């Protein structure tokens, strides 16, 4: 009787649905290329002094590459250059894999690579516990060998790094696995615009006319909403004349409002010229700000940041000031303040425009130049750096803190 009851209970427990969860651990990979120009001028900077790359993001953390032309430690007697990857943001036990590559610039492909991807690690990925934790090589390359090698070309070195941040996630049971189609709302609205069906407002821009739908415009832009439906709306909401904007720019604006993406800009302007693309992005940023389309404004800011050049940076800086683009403004000021750029920028027509339209920016620019000068003094060795060096005898793995 007892045995029968036990068997029944076991059978009942086995009939209950089985739930399953899965833990997945993988690396989120990112890459950065660091060009070190004027190598011969960095020699003599001093043992323990470095030149650093700009910070870059991988796996939600900031990283930077540190190059020590005279070596990192006194015991190496400046015979080696040192190379490290550092955690540049606050972290708590960030686990990662690293790869450092010194590029062979003779196109022979004989790169100097130190990597931990694809090979067995005795104790798993490396753990960095705080901002300034580093991994790298004190004796990365003997200086005499480096200076006579194909890694040095035109007095320049090229370093590539790969960071793989280890991430884990757990997924619970799923009741179904029905594939969900990708949203095509933008395409549907774009087709609606191109068909012309149901259009109830026409815009005249620089002699050209464009038909559109009031509700779509009002949904995407608070300015259009006020203009077409607000208490102070225009008297004639069926035909609107837009001043101070070129027709091609308004056409791109309408395309983005419906499609939520930009058209093929090279096809639009008929050239792949960098300066032409910058000019379009400048006009489009002004239009996006005018109609409070924040996503388009951010896209234009990003494109202008990536396309900064001597002959256009002054007008981009003025535009950033006028349309309250603080990040774009900071990038432009940093670019102009560099000694190798400042004189050339000051000789452009755009700089004359900047002085007339935004004279207050000149004061900010002077401040950037001054701060950059102070930073150069510090980098040249007038400030004592303190490191907590945890490198092993081979000089390979280091965990330390930057102050």
TrEMBL record:
Q: Which organism is it from?
A: Microthlaspi erraticum
Q: What is the lineage of its organism?
A: Eukaryota, Viridiplantae, Streptophyta, Embryophyta, Tracheophyta
Family matches, as Gene3D superfamilies: 1.25.40.420, Apoptosis, Tumor Necrosis Factor Receptor Associated Protein 2, Chain A, Potassium Channel Kv1.1, Chain A
Origin: domain of life: Eukaryota
Task: Write down what this protein is called.
Answer: BTB domain-containing protein
SUPFAM superfamilies with a match to the protein in the record: POZ domain (SSF54695), TRAF domain-like (SSF49599)
Q: In which pathway does it act?
A: Protein modification; protein ubiquitination
* Ranges for domain MATH: 29-163
Q: Which residues form the BTB domain?
A: 199-266
Q: Which GO terms describe its biological process?
A: cellular response to salt stress; protein ubiquitination
InterPro entries from the xrefs?
Answer: BACK_BPM_SPOP, BPM1-6, BPM_C, BTB/POZ_dom, MATH/TRAF_dom, SKP1/BTB/POZ_sf, TRAF-like
Recorded family membership: Belongs to the Tdpoz family.
| Role, per record | May act as a substrate-specific adapter of an E3 ubiquitin-protein ligase complex (CUL3-RBX1-BTB) which mediates the ubiquitination and subsequent proteasomal degradation of target proteins.
């Amino acid at each position: 009787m007892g045995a029968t009851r036990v068997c029944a209970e076991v059978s009942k427990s086995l009939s209950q649905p089985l739930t399953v969860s899965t833990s997945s651990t993988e690396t989120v990979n990112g890459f950065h290329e660091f060009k070190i120009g004027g190598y011969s001028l960095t020699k003599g900077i001093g043992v323990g002094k470095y030149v650093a790359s700009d910070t870059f993001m991988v796996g939600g953390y900031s990283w930077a590459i540190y190059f020590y032309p005279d070596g990192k430690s006194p015991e190496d007697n400046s015979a080696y250059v040192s190379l490290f990857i550092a955690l540049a943001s606050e972290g708590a036990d960030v686990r990662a894999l690293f790869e450092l590559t010194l590029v062979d610039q003779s196109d022979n492909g004989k790169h100097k690579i130190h990597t931990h991807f694809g090979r067995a690690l005795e104790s798993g990925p490396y753990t960095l516990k705080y901002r300034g934790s580093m991994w790298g090589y004190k004796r990365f390359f003997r200086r005499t060998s480096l200076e006579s090698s194909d890694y040095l070309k035109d007095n320049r070195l090229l370093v590539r790094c790969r960071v793989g941040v280890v991430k884990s996630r757990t997924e619970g049971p799923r009741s179904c696995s029905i594939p969900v189609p990708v949203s095509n709302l933008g395409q549907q609205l774009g087709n609606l615009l191109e068909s012309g069906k149901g259009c109830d407002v026409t815009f005249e821009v620089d002699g050209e006319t464009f038909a559109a739908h009031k509700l779509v415009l009002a949904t995407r832009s608070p300015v259009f909403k006020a203009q077409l439906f607000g208490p102070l709306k225009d008297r004639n909401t069926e035909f609107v004349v837009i001043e101070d904007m070129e027709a091609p720019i308004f056409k791109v604006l309408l395309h983005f409002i419906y499609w939520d993406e930009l058209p093929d800009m090279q096809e639009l302007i008929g050239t792949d010229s960098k300066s032409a693309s910058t000019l379009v992005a400048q006009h489009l940023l002004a239009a996006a700000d005018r109609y409070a389309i924040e996503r388009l404004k951010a896209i234009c800011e990003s494109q202008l940041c990536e396309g900064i050049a001597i002959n256009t940076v002054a007008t981009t800086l003025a535009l950033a000031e006028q349309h309250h683009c603080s990040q774009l403004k900071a990038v432009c000021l940093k670019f102009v303040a560099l000694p190798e750029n400042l004189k050339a920028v000051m000789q452009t027509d755009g700089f004359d425009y900047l002085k007339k339209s935004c004279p207050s920016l000149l004061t900010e620019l002077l401040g950037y130049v001054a701060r950059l000068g102070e930073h150069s003094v510090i980098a040249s060795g007038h400030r004592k750096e303190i490191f907590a060096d945890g490198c092993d005898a081979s000089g390979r793995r280091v965990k330390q803190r930057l102050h």
